[in-house]
Amino acid sequence: MRRKYILWGLFILFVLFLFLVPHQNIKLTDLLNTCQGCSSTHWLGTDNLGRDLFALMVTGGQRTIIVVFLATTISFTMGSLLGMISAYEGGIVKTIIQFIADFVTVIPSLIMALIFSALFGFSAPMAGIIFGIGNLGQYINLADGLTSEIKEKEFISAEVSIGLKRRTILFLHIFPNILKQLLVYLGNNASSVVLQYAGLAFIGLGTDVTNPDWGTLLYQYRGYILTYPRMVIVPIIAVCLLALFFHFAFDDGRIKETELTIYD
Amino acid sequence: MKNVILFLAKWVIIFIVTSVLIFAAVRMMPSTPVDKWLDAYHLPHTEENIEYVESKMGLNEPLPLQYVNWIGNFIKGDWGVSLVSGENIRERFMAKMPYSFSIGITGILLGAFAAFFLGYRAALRRNGLCDRLTTSMTIFCQSIPMFILSILIINAFGVRLGIASFFTGDGRYSLLAAILLTALYSVGGLSRVVRSAFREEMSKSYVKFMVSRGFSPKTVLWKHAYKPPLASLVSAIITRFAGVFGGSTVLEFAFAIPGLSTMLVSAMDSRDYSILQTYILVVVIWMFFVHLILNLFLRMLGARRSKA
Question: Which of A123, A209, B97, B302 is found 20 to 30 A from A28 (Cα to Cα)?
């Protein structure tokens, strides 16, 4: 548990740092000082146009955080709500919600994001919303499956028979029981959103080079991998660390005594 | 029988809803296909020209009629022509499909095959070698984007060692690398799915009973408990196959493979809406077949419709 507090503390510090740290103008080019190494004026050096790499990384990080936040919030809240309702109500409601889940999974979210960003302009909130909707199906299926299991338990039928409100049962008694598994999935999902967004920016459709993303930076600098590896390595490390953080912050590796089998 | 009808009805509805949505989205674009066509032939945007092109493309008819015509022609096999180059879209799709499909299908099946064995070994010995290997592979795939690995592979094999040429020649190295990468990125997650399904079987009483009677634990698991894990593997693959179109985009782009996704990206760049419309319909039809075949397979395994 201690490890998790440390991780979350570091993460909050990191986000505050990203949004509060003063950085240089990312649009300022300086063709006399291109591809400089690290120095006190340019913490991570400058790129092929003489822009400050640190400022570019910070701006890219802000955009990535916005995307991850929007995407996971949308799919987590809507997905678990719809999934719980679907399993609890059954019947026609379940059919409709199941249809929505199938529908959003059919078209891959990367393709949806490609289409919408190319057509209506590429922006971080837009990408976040599309990833959020695209990943909805998985959450619905997961929440649906977990709720169906819980619903069979005796304490739920006891609560129904003493006349508790449906809302109370769903949110106060079923939701806490399935939250743990949902959070593990949320962690995996958050890291995959980081990767998807970097991939989308790497393809670079409709991207505005003055709004740098980690993926965009990688695409722009990929030609310098032999001459100035620093410019490629910095975004790679950033993407990997953020994704790893999400994986470990939500992962719960411990095994319960009851889960041990005859094979152990 | 009732299930079959429900399944078909669901897919017909999905097809209709998706096609209406993309049809509407294309009509809401800031720049119209007519402008696109006139630009492509360097013609001035006079009223006469616009009117002529509109009647030529059938854009002056009422919207519902246009929609019906479009879908009707699509089903008959006439997928229209590209707005920019005037090429036949169907021929173009047919030429590009083998690349995307061979990457996706071979890669995922290869990955699933390896995942089943690795998952079995991982379940057999908790915290053993295979268990750790699959866990670290999962974490690896979740933290390192595919395209970064592609850049490194191109750099290592193409530039440093010089044993494979990725951007010249017939592109077979690119294809091979893309297939192997797809497989690598499927193995981690899928093997964990197999592992947890095997572990669930392990705790069941029939397994306990057979092991207590003296059957070897390995044989019991391999010969008698393989069906549920296989079923979970198959249902996990279904969602992966959606990624044949989505996931291969980055790979095709990185290795410059002339597949469907590369075509889509260039079509988006030039705002070629007719390709975009068709592409979405093809994705839906592809997913229909994936669901159909894999659900039949699940049925054969005797599983109920499983939750992902």
Answer: A123
Question: A213: distance to nearest CA of chain B, Å?
Answer: 14
Query: What distance in Å separates the CA atoms of residue B21 and residue B32, rounded to the nearest whole number?
Result: 17
Question: Under a CB-based contact definition with an 8 Å cutoff, are residues A105 and A66 in contact?
Answer: no
Contact in structure between A137 and A102 (CB atoms under 8 Å): yes
- Can you say whether residue A232 is alpha, beta or left, with left for phi > 0 and alpha for psi between -120 and 50 degrees? alpha
User: Per-residue pLDDT for A1 more than 70?
Assistant: no
**Hunting for tokens 């649009």 — which residue is that?**
A27
Mutation site, B2, B147, B166, interface A, largest A CB count within 10 A: B147
Which of helix, strand or coil describes residue A32? coil
For domain A64-250, the CATH class is: mainly alpha
Distances (CA, A) of A117 to A120, A127, B19, B280: 5, 7, 19, 16
ipTM > 0.90 for the complex: no
Nearest CA in chain A to B291: A106
Measure B212 CA to nearest chain A CA, in Å: 9
A101-139 pLDDT per residue, tens: 888 887 777 777 777 776 677 778 888 888 898 888 889
Contact B265 A202 (CB under 8 A): no
Which residues of chain B are within 8 Å of residue A259 when distances are taken between CB atoms?
199, 203
Contact B147/A at CB under 8 A: yes
A34 CB burial (10 A radius; 0-12, 13-18, 19+): middle
- The verdict on a CB contact (< 8 Å) between B142 and A138 is no
Q: 103-132 in B: which are within 8 Å (CB) of A? A: 123-126
CB contact under 8 A, A142 and B308: yes
Which residues 6+ apart lie within 8 Å of B107 measured at CB? B178, B179, B180, B181, B182, B183, B186
For residue B25, the chain A residues in CB contact (below 8 A) are: 115, 119
Which residue is it, tokens 């120095």? A39
Contact residues for A183 (Cβ-Cβ < 8 A; gap 6+): A250
pTM of this structure: 0.82
Task: Choose among B13, B25, B268: nearest Cβ to A114.
Answer: B268
Q: For chain A, what percent of residues have pLDDT higher than 90?
A: 9
Instruction: Give the model confidence (pLDDT) of B205-257 as tens digits.
Output: 888 888 889 888 888 888 888 888 898 898 888 877 876 666 677 888 888 88
Rounded Cα gap, residues A185 and A247, in angstroms: 9
Spacing of C-alpha A2 from chain mean position: 23
The answer to whether residue B305 scores a pLDDT higher than 50 is no
Interface contact B303, partner A, CB < 8 A = no
d(CA A218, CA A197): 12
